[in-house]
Structures are given as structure tokens and as C-alpha cells.
């Protein structure tokens, strides 16, 4: 078996629920009661890194596991980890995200871990400050506040870390502690910060030393001479990094992975991203190749090993969260291609090599994001299009010019805006000096329309979460005004909840290690959860934009046909039962995604949303930023949304991101791209998702040319993000019938990749319904 096959085989067994981190973390937190919380968190992390079982898997030359015996799910009891207790009996048999769990581990979780955390976790802290908002959120219909689980979603500043090494942080922390004490501890908070920083840095150094010892021990017992030499080299590398700055390409990659491992022990495991990896690894690669220490094949193997490693973990979602975040992705993104901080093309040898690795390792992680611009070389675009045409549905594409304008609009300096990185699904951020919390909340904007049409009343569950109104709706302008009022109300609730949760995170879960990984935090002596980063954003996402746009266009159309608003509203309340003729009229109205009249409503609604979001400041002293992507909340929110004037029936999925509603892009892909490009992306500084689904059977041999042309057109028209699913409807339906035969069938969802058979049936059905190849 070749190395790549061996590496992939390491993560192909069923995933398990891992409680080891939770046990060790809880042990330490019990022992440090009464100490400052940043120091408690640092000690807990160090305790985990010093004691969690370690292993080097067969064939590995980049080592470090995030949990014993991968693959598995890391449990975070200080966040929402205890929710999994409700699923323990069915965990290994449920429809999606199955996890194996032993009886003993289940007992320890229920009897030893849960009792300590049930009144100490983030939810327990925050719920006392916002009981009314918790009630709304727990209904599941209106919005999701993800910071309840913890704060992550960040691009790590690896150039900053690689330059220093973690021993520097230990020594510099000691120096600053001495200075603070000599000054009379004028700023005791900084004293605590640097004490915590020192402990966290010592913890990650010790973690690597443990792997060095294990590698040497395994080398002594290894009969195969080649593997023995590999293990000895691994030991030498682990003895050096991440304590010291790396001196080789292999050391630099290993450095990155050790940091990823440690950050995933400290922080909730969503969206901790590697940043512009082809840029910061390039000097090491070029130097090693020039000096004859590294061949392209060796670099390929090192990178392939790195590409496999993020697949060792899956999220421990309970069944309810699976409705909103189906697909088992932890969204460790990395960014390649694009321009540099001066706006000049920065595509390089590693950019091409990393595309080759992505082609060879078609796994759901890492989330490979490719930056393109008008300056991107044709040869690079050809390679990218070729990979996509072959059905490697694990790539997202970002338009540099559109992203630059959005970040500048958000107040980011020019050089930082050009040097942006991607995070998680489709989020954008200045690289390495920003803490965006870019997936803090997702909002069901279609509910705002439902409330607008019904005086603030929820027509599915009867909740009165909207603004009560007795106003009579007579015109389309009345509907838009009522929608704006309801949307403003919902956003205010979300902002309030997000700010309380950010305060809760700062109090309950400061992050000493992450604060070393974002520039300016260490220099200021200020934790990232308190605003230590240079840029501080909080990203909230709109879900269901096209459904609202289509509804407004349909109301306009039906009114012109002689129907009244009262009739339209009543038809929606009855899910069109008895209103079949009106339903047909509403469905025949112009729809967003066809380069036509309805597109102006999508632009209008998004601008309305963005303007409202940008009014607010966050707990960390920054601003709220708007995005438009759904994860799979468009399916879950759709369950809970009434029929809409667009003709969409109650319970069906909402649209995904800025993509047209399912089946409504009647004029084909090129028209959809034109519609999507009409949106004002300047105000969407938290990112958007646009998915183009193409039938591989129709594309035939022209796939690469078609996709390259579509990407170029998208960039020229000014779109922000585009991703492709090259699929075959017959294959997907066979996968539904015989999932065991299609275990590794990869599809692109709403900014990340997932194995088709691990998606819920409703998400699968939506993907099948979206396949189109009308060019």
C-alpha cells in the first residue's frame, strides 16, 4: 500500500465519541477553583497536552492527533457538549453523525463530567443574562447563536508564530511578568495574561516533546529500515518545533499541525483555519529545493499527510444540531492563490502543488479555498477548472477584488484587505490580526416576512416573537415596511444575544493559546476574547434571502393580476389549499436567479439586512458584519417557516446562501451568475456562498472549458464566492439506496464539503433537486 492510501486508511473506521479531553480538562478545572480564569484555562490546556494519549499512525511523517484512536469527536462540556447526553442511547444508530461510545465512557460523561459543568458552562452563565432571548433561540425557528458553544472561527497567524517559536513566548512572558511586578503591578490583568501565556506555551512545547519521545521509541522497535529512518527524522523535528522557529519545509508543516492540534484542545472545534498556507510555507519550500534537501515528491507527501490530518475529528452534534449543521465538518480551512498585500498576483509553485494534493486527497477536510482575481494566471485557472470538472467537490473559489472592496468597506486597511484569508465555510478576514467570530449567528430572514404578513405572529408554532402589529397591509410598500420592522427587531435580538455570549466567553472561557496566535494580543497583554486583536468583528448570516425576494416579486405580480394582499396572505396561511389558481400565479412570477426583475429585490433585501447589522458594535469593541450563507440551516429553518408568497410551501427548504431558490433558476447557470453578481458585496464583509450544481453526464468532455469560463465570468461580473458540485443524479439516488457502496462520495454543501451519505435525507434531496446544467 502506498503512503497516501495508508494515511487515508487511518481515518476510515467508524468515528467515536472521545471523552479523554473532557476528563482531563475537568480534572484540572476542579483543582484550580478560585484562581484567575485565564490561568485556569491555561493550566487545563497544559494538563490535557501533557496527559492525553498520543500515537503515531501508520505511514505518518506529520504527526499529532487531536484525540486518541481517531477518527472521533472531541467533547467540550464547557460549551454545548453536554447536549450529546440526550443521544447516548441512539448515538451509534442515528441517521447522521453516528458515533460509537462505550458504556464506561457514557457513564463517566453522565456521572462525573456533566454534574460539574451543568451550572458552570457558557449556556448556564449566559442564560441568566438573557432568558427571553434563550427562549426565542431554543425554539429553533428564528436564529441560532453559535457562540453558545464557544468562540472559534479564526485564521491563525502562522507567519507570526513560525518567526518566533513558542519558547520565545515563554521567555518573553517571563520578561514582561518581571517588568509588571517591578512597576508595582499597575496592570494586574496583564500579569495574569502573561502568566497564562507562559503556561500555554509550555504546554504545546511539552506536547511536541512527547511525540519526539514516542517517535524514538517506535524507531527502536521498527524492523523496516526506511520507516525507522522516517521515525528518527520525525523525532528530530518534534524536538525542535514548535519550541523553535522551523528551519525546513517539513519542520514548518509539522509546526503548523502541532498548533492546530493544541488549538483544537483549547477551543471549540469549528473553523480554526490555517490561513494563506502557500504564502507562508513558500520560503521554506524554495530554500529546501534549492539546497537539494527536498524534492517535489517529498513535498507532495508531506502536504498530503497534512491534508489527511484534519479528517481525524468530527463535531459531536446532537440530533437537533444535526438538523442545522449536517455533514460532520469542522471546517479547518486553508487558503491558496490570490494577490499579495500590494495587489500583485501571488500565485506560486506551492499553489499549484497544493491543487495537486487536493486532487489526490478528495476528503471533506481541509476546506480548500482558492483565491482568484483578474490577475490569476490562465495555467492556474486551467488546473483549478480541471480538478472541479473531474468531480473533486472539495474546493471553494473567492474573487479577490470583491472581497477587497468588502473588507475596505468594513474599515480594514488596504494592505490587510488584499492579504485576506478565508475562514471556516466562506468567511473572509484580514489574515492573522483579526478575530472575526465569523459564524456567531444565523438568522431566518424568511421568518421576518412571515411575521410581517401576520402582525408578528408565528404561523407554524403560534409564538409571538415578532413585533405585534395591527396595521393593515394594502400595498407592496406596506409589506416591505412591515418586513423591515420585523427584520430590525430580529437583528436586535441577535445582536443582544451575541454580545452577552461574547461577554460570557470572556468570563468563562478565555483562550490563552489562541491569544498567542493572533497578532497584537500578546503585545497588548489582552486576551482575544476581550478584544486583543487589531480587528474585531462578529459575523451574522442571513438565511432565506431569495425566498423573500421571490415573495416580493410574486406579490407585485399577483397584485397586477388583480389579487389582493388579503387573498395572498390567506393563501399562505392555508398552505395554498383551496387557492390553487393563485398558487399557480405566484409560482409563475419572476424569480431571482434568472437575470430579471426579481433580482432587484434580492439586492434590496440584502442591503436592508446589511445596513441594519452594521449599526451595532460588539463586546470586543469592533463591529457586527453581515454575511449570507446557511450551513444547512436553510433546511432546518425551512421546516419551521410557513408558506410564502413566492409559492414555496410550508416546511420546504429555504434557499442556500445567495443561490436562487431550488428549481427557480429557470434560465440556466449563466443567468444565475448574472443575478448573483448584481448583489452589493461591498456590504457583505462576512462572506457569501453561491453553489453551482452541474450534471456530469451533460458536461461530458467540455467540463474544464465550461467551468473555467464560468469562473472568469463570475470574477469579471464582480461576484464574491462560487463553488461547484459536479454530480450525477442517478449516482446520488443510488447512493441513497445503497449508502455503503458510496461511502466516500463527496459533495459541496454551503461552503464546505461532506460525504453525501452522511447528510440528512432532506439535505440529500435538496442537493438532488438542485442539479442543473442549463448553460
TrEMBL record:
InterPro entries named in the record: Gly_radical, GRE, PFL2/GDeHydtase_fam, PFL_dom
Keyword list, A-Z: Acyltransferase, Lyase, Organic radical, Pyruvate, Transferase
Main EC class the enzyme belongs to: transferase
Residues with PTM Glycine radical: 751
Enzyme Commission number(s) of this protein: 2.3.1.54
Residue ranges constituting the Glycine radical domain according to the UniProt record: 656-775
One GO cellular component, as annotated: cytosol
Pfam families in alphabetical order: Gly_radical, PFL-like
Residue spans crossing the bilayer: none
Any GO molecular function: lyase activity
Domain PFL, chain residue ranges per copy: 1-649
Cited NCBIfam families: PFL2-3
Protein name: Pyruvate formate-lyase
Source species of the chain: Geoglobus ahangari
Amino acid at each position: 500500500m502506498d503512503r497516501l492510501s495508508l494515511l487515508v486508511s487511518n481515518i476510515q473506521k467508524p468515528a467515536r465519541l472521545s471523552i479523554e479531553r473532557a476528563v482531563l480538562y475537568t480534572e484540572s478545572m476542579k483543582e484550580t477553583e478560585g484562581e484567575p480564569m485565564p490561568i485556569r484555562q491555561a493550566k487545563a490546556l497544559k494538563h490535557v497536552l501533557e496527559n492525553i494519549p498520543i500515537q503515531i499512525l501508520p505511514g505518518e511523517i506529520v504527526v499529532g492527533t487531536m484525540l486518541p484512536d481517531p477518527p472521533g469527536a472531541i467533547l467540550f462540556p464547557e460549551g454545548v457538549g453536554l447536549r450529546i447526553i440526550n443521544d447516548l442511547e441512539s448515538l451509534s444508530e442515528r441517521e447522521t453523525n453516528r458515533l460509537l461510545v462505550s458504556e464506561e465512557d457514557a457513564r463517566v460523561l453522565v456521572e462525573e463530567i456533566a454534574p460539574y459543568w451543568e451550572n458552570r458552562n457558557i449556556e448556564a452563565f449566559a442564560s441568566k443574562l438573557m432568558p427571553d432571548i434563550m427562549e426565542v433561540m431554543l425554539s429553533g425557528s428564528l436564529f441560532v447563536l453559535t457562540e453558545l458553544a464557544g468562540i472559534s472561527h479564526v485564521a491563525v497567524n502562522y507567519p507570526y508564530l513560525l518567526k518566533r517559536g513558542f519558547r520565545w513566548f515563554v521567555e518573553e512572558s517571563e520578561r514582561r511578568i518581571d517588568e509588571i511586578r517591578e512597576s508595582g503591578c499597575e496592570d494586574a490583568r496583564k500579569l495574569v495574561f502573561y502568566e497564562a501565556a507562559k503556561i500555554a506555551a509550555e504546554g504545546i512545547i511539552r506536547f511536541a516533546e512527547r511525540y519526539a519521545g514516542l517517535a524514538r521509541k517506535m524507531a527502536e522497535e521498527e524492523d523496516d529500515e526506511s520507516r525507522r529512518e522516517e521515525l528518527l527524522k520525525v523525532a528530530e523535528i518534534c524536538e525542535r518545533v514548535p519550541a523553535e522557529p522551523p528551519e525546513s519545509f517539513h519542520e514548518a508543516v509539522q509546526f503548523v499541525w502541532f498548533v492546530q492540534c493544541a488549538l483544537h484542545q483549547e477551543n471549540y472545534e469549528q473553523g480554526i483555519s490555517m490561513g494563506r498556507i502557500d504564502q507562508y510555507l513558500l520560503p521554506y519550500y524554495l530554500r529546501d529545493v534549492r539546497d537539494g534537501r527536498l524534492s517535489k515528491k517529498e513535498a507532495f507527501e508531506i502536504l498530503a499527510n497534512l491534508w489527511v490530518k484534519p479528517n481525524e475529528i468530527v463535531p459531536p452534534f446532537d440530533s437537533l444540531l444535526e438538523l442545522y449543521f449536517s455533514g460532520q465538518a469542522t471546517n479547518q480551512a486553508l487558503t491558496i492563490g490570490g494577490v499579495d498585500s500590494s495587489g500583485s498576483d501571488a500565485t506560486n509553485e506551492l499553489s499549484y502543488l497544493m491543487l495537486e494534493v487536493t486532487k489526490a486527497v478528495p476528503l471533506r477536510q481541509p476546506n480548500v479555498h482558492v483565491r482568484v482575481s483578474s490577475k490569476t494566471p490562465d495555467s492556474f485557472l486551467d488546473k483549478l477548472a480541471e480538478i472541479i470538472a473531474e468531480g473533486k467537490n472539495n474546493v471553494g473559489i473567492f474573487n479577490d477584488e470583491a472581497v477587497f472592496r468588502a473588507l475596505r468597506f468594513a474599515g480594514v486597511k488596504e494592505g490587510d484587505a488584499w492579504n485576506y484569508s478565508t475562514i471556516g465555510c466562506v468567511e473572509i478576514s484580514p489574515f492573522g490580526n483579526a478575530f472575526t467570530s465569523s459564524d456567531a449567528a444565523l438568522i431566518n430572514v424568511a421568518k421576518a416576512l412571515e411575521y410581517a404578513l401576520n402582525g408578528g405572529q408565528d404561523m407554524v408554532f403560534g409564538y409571538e416573537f415578532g413585533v405585534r402589529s395591527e396595521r393593515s397591509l394594502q400595498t407592496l410598500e406596506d409589506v416591505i415596511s412591515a418586513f423591515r420592522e420585523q427584520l430590525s427587531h430580529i437583528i436586535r435580538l441577535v445582536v443582544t444575544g451575541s454580545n452577552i455570549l461574547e461577554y460570557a466567553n470572556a468570563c468563562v472561557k478565555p483562550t490563552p493559546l489562541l491569544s498567542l496566535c493572533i497578532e497584537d494580543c500578546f503585545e497588548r497583554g489582552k486576551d482575544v476574547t476581550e478584544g486583543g486583536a487589531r480587528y474585531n468583528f462578529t459575523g451574522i448570516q442571513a438565511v432565506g434571502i431569495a425566498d423573500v425576494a421571490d415573495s416580493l416579486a410574486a406579490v407585485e405580480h399577483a397584485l397586477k393580476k388583480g389579487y389582493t394582499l388579503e387573498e395572498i396572505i390567506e393563501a399562505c396561511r392555508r398552505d395554498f389549499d383551496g387557492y390553487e389558481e393563485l398558487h399557480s400565479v405566484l409560482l409563475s412570477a419572476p424569480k431571482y436567479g434568472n437575470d430579471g426583475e426579481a433580482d432587484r429585490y434580492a439586492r434590496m433585501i440584502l442591503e436592508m439586512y446589511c445596513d441594519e447589522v452594521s449599526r451595532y458594535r460588539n463586546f470586543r469593541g469592533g463591529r457586527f458584519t453581515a454575511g449570507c450563507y446557511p450551513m444547512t440551516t436553510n433546511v432546518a429553518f425551512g421546516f419551521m417557516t410557513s408558506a410564502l408568497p413566492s409559492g414555496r410551501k410550508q416546511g420546504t427548504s429555504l434557499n442556500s446562501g445567495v443561490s436562487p431558490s431550488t428549481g427557480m433558476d429557470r434560465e440556466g447557470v449563466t443567468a444565475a451568475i448574472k443575478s448573483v453578481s448584481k448583489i452589493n458585496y461591498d456590504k457583505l464583509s462576512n462572506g457569501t456562498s453561491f453553489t453551482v450544481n452541474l450534471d456530469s453526464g451533460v458536461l461530458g468532455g467540455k467540463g474544464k472549458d465550461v467551468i473555467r469560463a464560468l469562473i472568469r465570468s463570475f470574477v469579471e461580473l464582480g461576484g464574491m464566492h462560487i463553488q461547484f458540485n459536479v454530480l450525477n443524479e442517478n449516482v446520488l439516488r443510488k447512493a441513497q439506496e445503497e449508502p455503503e457502496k458510496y461511502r466516500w462520495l463527496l459533495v459541496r454543501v454551503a461552503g464546505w464539503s461532506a460525504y453525501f451519505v452522511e447528510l440528512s435525507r432532506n439535505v440529500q434531496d435538496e442537493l438532488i433537486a438542485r442539479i442543473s446544467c442549463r448553460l
